[in-house]
Specification:
It is a single chain. This protein has 64 residues and is mostly helical. The chain has one domain. The chain is 53% helix and 0% strand. The radius of gyration is 22 Å and the shape is elongated. The relative contact order is 0.06. It holds the Pfam family tRNA-synt_2c. This is Alanyl-tRNA synthetase class IIc N-terminal domain-containing protein. InterPro entries: aa-tRNA-synth_II/BPL/LPL (IPR045864), Ala-tRNA-synth_IIc_N (IPR018164), Ala-tRNA_ligase (IPR050058).
């Protein structure tokens, strides 16, 4: 019977990071996803703002 190998999240993360470090990639420090004290930037970065024109066009098509 094959041996079961456990892969908890920490092991997966460390294996992933080590793989790229061995290939001479830089491990940059992470930064927060939510901007500090700037509620407008998060909305713009999500890309949903770009959909507004498409949604208006879609509504125009559906209303025709």
């Amino acid at each position: 019977m094959a041996q079961v190998v456990e892969w908890p999240a920490n092991r997966v993360r460390e294996t992933f990071i080590n793989f790229f470090e061995e290939k001479k990639h830089v491990d940059w420090k992470s930064s927060p996803v939510v901007p500090v004290n700037d509620p407008t930037l998060l909305f713009a970065n999500t890309g949903t703002y770009l959909l507004f024109g498409s949604l208006e066009f879609l509504n125009w098509i559906l209303d025709s």
